[in-house]
Write a structure and sequence with these properties.
Blueprint: H1 3-36, H2 39-74, H3 87-121, H4 123-152
Helix pairs in contact: 1-2, 1-4, 2-3, 2-4, 3-4
The structure holds protoporphyrin IX containing FE.
The site of protoporphyrin IX containing FE (HEM) has 21 residues, from helix 1, helix 2, helix 3 and helix 4.
C-alpha cells in the first residue's frame, strides 16, 4: 500500500480514538460523575479516570500530528499554510496545537496542581469549569473533523 494512504488511514485512526475519547468523557463520564458523587468528590474522581485517558490521548495526538505532517511532506504541500483557501488545514493544526499544549505542557505542569487547589475551596465551580472546557474542546474538534473531511475532498 502507498505510504500516503497508510499515513491517511493512521491519521483518521488517531482522530477517531482521540476525539471519540473526548466525546465519551464530555458527554457521558462528566455528567455521570456529577450525578453520582458529592461536589467535594467530583474533581478527584474525574482526575483518577482522566489520568488513564490523558495517557492514551497523548499517544493519539502524537500519531495524528506525525501522520498529518508526514502527509504534508509527502504531498509537498507546506505552501498550503500560506494560502487562506486552505483554512481547514490551519484549523486542523490549530486544534492539534491546543490539545498538544494542554496535554504535554499545561495539564502536567500547571493545570493539575491549580485544579486540585481550586477544588479545595470551590469544588462545584471547579467541576463546572472542567465540564465547560471539555465541551469547548469537543465542539472545536467536531467542527475540525467535518471541515477536514470536506476540505480534503475538495468540498470547501
Ligand atoms: C498537526 C496537525 C495536523 C496536520 C498537519 C494535518 C494534516 C492533514 C493533511 C495533510 C490531510 C490530507 C489533506 C488532503 O488530502 O489534501 C489531513 C486530512 C484529515 N485530517 Fe488532519 N492534520 C492535522 C490535525 C488534524 C486534527 C486535529 C484533526 C481532527 C480533529 C484532523 C482530521 C483530519 C481528517 C478527518 C482528515 C480527512 C481524511 C480523509 O477524509 O481523507 N487532522 N490532515
Amino acid at each position: 500500500m502507498e505510504k500516503l494512504i497508510v499515513a491517511r488511514a493512521l491519521h483518521v485512526l488517531g482522530v477517531v480514538l482521540w476525539i471519540g475519547g473526548v466525546a465519551l468523557v464530555t458527554s457521558a463520564l462528566l455528567p455521570a460523575i456529577r450525578d453520582f458523587s458529592s461536589a467535594e468528590e467530583r474533581v478527584g474522581i474525574f482526575e483518577r479516570i482522566e489520568y488513564r485517558f490523558a495517557r492514551q490521548a497523548r499517544f493519539t495526538t502524537l500519531l495524528t500530528g506525525i501522520t498529518g505532517f508526514y502527509m504534508l511532506y509527502a504531498l509537498d504541500a507546506w505552501d498550503r499554510y500560506t494560502t487562506l483557501s486552505f483554512w481547514w488545514l490551519h484549523l486542523m493544526t490549530f486544534t492539534w496545537l491546543i490539545f498538544t499544549i494542554m496535554l504535554f505542557i499545561l495539564e502536567p505542569l500547571v493545570l493539575k496542581r491549580k485544579l486540585q487547589e481550586r477544588a479545595q475551596s470551590a469544588p462545584a465551580q471547579t467541576f463546572a469549569i472542567i465540564t465547560r472546557m471539555h465541551w469547548f474542546l469537543l465542539i472545536l474538534s467536531l467542527i475540525t473533523v467535518v471541515c477536514a473531511v470536506a476540505g480534503s475532498h475538495g468540498g470547501l
